[in-house]
Amino acid sequence: MSDVARNTPPGAAATAAPMISIQGLRKLYPQGSRTITALDGVDLEVPAGDVHGIIGHSGAGKSTLVRCLTLLDRPTEGSVSINGADLASGSDRDLLNARRRIGMVFQHANLLSSRTALDNVAYPLEVTGKDKTARRARAQELLSLVGLEGFENSYPAQLSGGQRQRVGIARALATEPDILLCDEPTSALDPATTDGILELIRDLSSRLGLTVLVITHEMHVVKRLCDSVSLLEAGRIVEGGPLADVASRLDHRLSAALLPLPESALDTEGTLVEVLGRGESAGIPVASLIENRFDQPVRVVAGSIEDLAGERFSHYLLSLPDPGPSPTGAEAPADAAVVVDFLKEWGFQVQVRTRTQLEAAQDTAQTLGGAQ
Amino acid sequence: MNWLTELIENPVITNALPEALVETLQMVAISGVLTVLIGGALGVILHVTSPAGLRPVRWLNALLSAVVVNITRSIPYAILMLALIPFTQWLVGTAIGPIAACVSLTIATVPFFARLVETSLREVPSGTVDAARVMGSTRGQIIRKVMLPEAMPGLVASVTTTLVTLVGYSAMAGLIGGGGLGRLAYNYGYQRWDPGVMLVIIVIIVLLVQLIQWIGDLIIRRVDHR
User: Which UniProt keywords apply (chain B) (predicted)?
Assistant: First the structure.
């Protein structure tokens, strides 16, 4: 597990204490005579100011992780600390104070239907005992921050899903928390509203220097929002790292989900080669590069070019003709291994793929919501 | 229109009826207030101590729901009010009159109202309560600021239902000395067989129930923002 997320972005001091530190988190649930292992040793560190995504499909342990992070459930083993303070230790009073350092955004906003937007945002301040004038002023300020000026006296039922989520975000920020924990923040919203909310979270995190942890099952959310990502599977984090690094690891499933190839028929002749270019090499036309060098035709089976985390990525699936005497009597095409080495010299990541492997990658892309 | 003038000039209608109405209102109001306070608290405790509640206390929850709520609810009011006469005598010094009737009325409706309160509180989405917990609310804050306000439409409906039930019970209580419209109907409508008085009392009780329901619905519309 050498590549488990230790997400120190380039340039950040390696010695700086992480804002979120999760160590050896395990959660077991008794179910009848059996024991269900929901979390099986989760380790994660998120540096201050980072937007980190945890992706996994249902049953991977996402909900349990959220409940353990907010101590709605006590972890069986392991520790969670936020800004150096251990959440699990101490009295009930300490727990309340620790919770007030976490701002949480829920999938369904979970607003109080009996309160107006303004009073919903003021709720966390009311709980901490701020006086009425101060909390109304702060709530007003937060509502403008999320773009809901003029909706102060609207009740949640009078707001759209996206507006309700904005109120939820404003409320999460009310106590000036160290971290913002977003649990499937856009899963109940339509695509256009989703992008608006993601943009808002992204914008707030950079303006307020917030550390954000986003739990989601949609790769789209990770692409639009996150600096770094972890893949949660069967209660463990199995892959992770800064977004661009993870994307460029051709042998990883997060890469298959981040940079999916369009679905294509894989019934072509020849050797299938997957090629991934990052940054400068993403601009190189791979097919003609090979054709010029080896004087043989190359078929592009599928390809995509995408910008991710400020970098350009190109991802191709090429079909090279099988070696052996050419039917036209021309020179025999070069062996695939030679082409692979040649492309590696040009800075590409290259893998010869079987059809089974490619189908597995397409499945991964689909289950993690990365396929178009 | 002879029967109408006769009815209006009937001393039972002009003298005894207003007095009986006041007694009924007194019984409903006093036991209503006591029921809302005691039954409300009991309902909150039932919900909070339940296995999925804020503070599960298994034995207390089992005790309250089995012994208090179920047993008292399964005894018909007609029997309960008779059985409680010695207790009422001891508590208020008399078993006669509207105040004495309030003892058995309150004891009968508290468990009923407590169950309604518990049901209303259970309908508050667990996500809303989780959100309040995550925001660092204490248990008391969650009950006062989240659960009760969120359940308010259901709670007001429960109060309405309870008051309507009390109007019915108070008529029964009137038979054994509580007074009020129940006794008037029994004494004049039944024993003296005066159908005019009986009819007027029925109309007044129907109007009273309608009024309670109407006010309840009005308040629900004001507090329901869902």
Answer: Cell membrane, Membrane, Transmembrane, Transmembrane helix, Transport
